[in-house]
# Entry
Amino acid sequence: MLDIKLIRDQPDFVRQRLAARGAGDERLIDDLLKLDEQWRRQVSEVETLKAQRKRVSKEIGALMGQKKTEEAEARKRETSALGDRIAALDRGAAEAEAARNQLMLRLPNLPHATVPPGKEAADNPVIRVHGEKPSFAFPAKSHVELCEKLGLVDFERATKLSGSGFVLYTNWGAKLERALIQFMLDLHTSAHGYTEVSPPYMVGPQCLEGVGQFPKFADQYYGVQEGLDAGTLGKLYLIPTAETPVANIHREEILKESALPLRYCAYTPCFRGEAGAAGVGTRGMIRVHQFDKVELISIVKPENGYTEHEQMVAGAERVLQSLGLHYRVVLLCTGDMGFASAKTYDLEVWAPGQGSYLEVSSVSNCEDFQARRMNLRFKTEAGDNRFPHVLNGSGTALARLFVALVETCQQADGTLAVPAALQPYLKTERITT
RNA sequence: GGAGAGAUGGCUGAGUGGUUUAAAGCGCACGCCUGGAGAGCGUGAGUGGGCUUAUACCCCACCCUGGGUUCGAAUCCCAGUCUCUCCGCCA
# Structure
């Protein structure tokens, strides 16, 4: 959520920054200012009346105390109409405020000044490249073929269980998935200072609203119903990312300044409806309804937001480096950023069998956008309550990492050479049938 | 799922319709006192919003949430949420 005071004081600046994102949201600013103006007018009017009512009620109380019943009754009659007027004005003000807030919740974050202008993914500049594309003395196979030959994934039976977009890891595939999760958690908690948490996989709608997934993108997530009780539908949602529960851990709290920075690391499965994405990358496991991910969340003082951001990207990169994967870091342009983000880097890992880069991490500084929605604050030494910066980054997402790893590690004989970093977890140097 | 109890400020806890702002205690901050500390004394301190150059003044709202009754609600009425205890079921 943007700061209403910023919108009031610098509407042109806000319009300009929203326009840079290219979604046309800047047109909402006029409506919003109109509603805000209306709300403020009604509030100050109703508050005057409330002050009056309060005064008279006290006088009536005093008269009653002095047994001046007749006078008290007379004052009551005079004031009886006041209540109705207040109620009517209150209702009008509440409506204007609610309408204003609905608009506020639908406005995306403003891009940071260092975000390059652009319309789409093709406009994202590559910031750096790590390593080189591996070359093979044989034709590189796709992960689909490798996984089937080595029995790592059973695509057909996954479909039998849950339809398309689901993965059944089997044997070494399941072990590899688990090894990757544990390797990443260990790396972030021991080397990067994150505290491991294991959150609920179902959350209330307020958590989705808090991070900016609701209300605008409500059609992309799975709502849960308890048994046959349709009345419970919509009370809980399957998390689309660990960001949803973890960033909300301290919602509605006022943290001590000394508690910051807070750094959390969590493994969770992620559930995504991917509505409208049918047919796009559905082959194999590039785009699925359920995947595993290790997520990083930082809550920091605003002045430290962007150094934390760089540090978080470096932490996610370390995962790919340790696994010997070739990747590049991309800075998302204004038109390609997520709703809540002010600045985002994507990590794209090379998948030889696909002949393309796969997005395995997205690291964003949402500045105070989410903190405002969650009403998460910290109290400074001086006693002021301020909104912290909230950052999230994948560290990293599986399924796609699995794909890139399998395709990168393939050998001429169709087996996989396990990277040194994973050997302690898998207790083998080679994955064969 | 059944039965009961409860939800008040950072914490404990009083308050069942009014006459000044939610008593009191603990904890907290500052000051006085002291060589220093403690005790003691004094002062202050919540959150959001409106009005403002202003974190000043003034005003409004907030005693779990949402409705209602009333001139007036922490207090009365209705609905809901959550927590705790016991029972049942259960990994």
About this structure: Residues 28-65 of chain A form the longest helix (38 residues). Residues 40, 43-44, 46-48, 50-51, 53-54, 56-66, 72-73, 75-80, 82-83, 254, 382-385 of chain A lie near RNA strand B (CB under 10 Å from a C1').
